[in-house]
Amino acid sequence: MTLGSHQQCVGKSQDHLTPKWIIDVLGPFDLDPAAAPEPRPWDCARVNWSRNGLDMSWHGHGLTWLNPPFDRREVGQWVFRLAEHNNGIALLHARTEAAWFEPIWQRASVILFMGDRLKFYRPDGSEQPHNSGAPPILAAFGAEAAARLEHSGIPGALVRAWEWRRA
User: Fold this and answer.
1) Terminus-to-terminus CA distance in the chain, angstroms?
2) Could you give the CA distance from residue 16 to residue 166 in angstroms, rounded to a whole number?
3) Which CATH number is associated with domain 20-159?
């Protein structure tokens, strides 16, 4: 059994809207390449793409917000794209043992291991009845994203520097 093995997201809905307070604290953002489908109760960025963000060019879109689908078969592609873009913040589960977490260890400027689990929102704007079921992180890529995260005041453990070693 691995840490968090009781989690199941494959085959379940991937529409878990970011709590608005996070966007209010960290934003504004220019691009959300993994936005929830419309209608949605709030936008997380000026430009919002629903699920086709992996097929689009992020170049020239500025500071990116990323709350990707949590499907373990897909999340790594999103994390890699944000690491390549190097200008944004991702909301993810703290699956530090997962292969998809490697771009965060290798390239993120700052990681915030959030102090509390989150409750996401449904497309109608109502809060999910249960928390996300896993500890959340915010990973910042690039100087502007790092500064926003460092000055956000969001409770948790902020990690600014580490040495990456492959086991």
Assistant:
1) 20
2) 32
3) 3.40.50
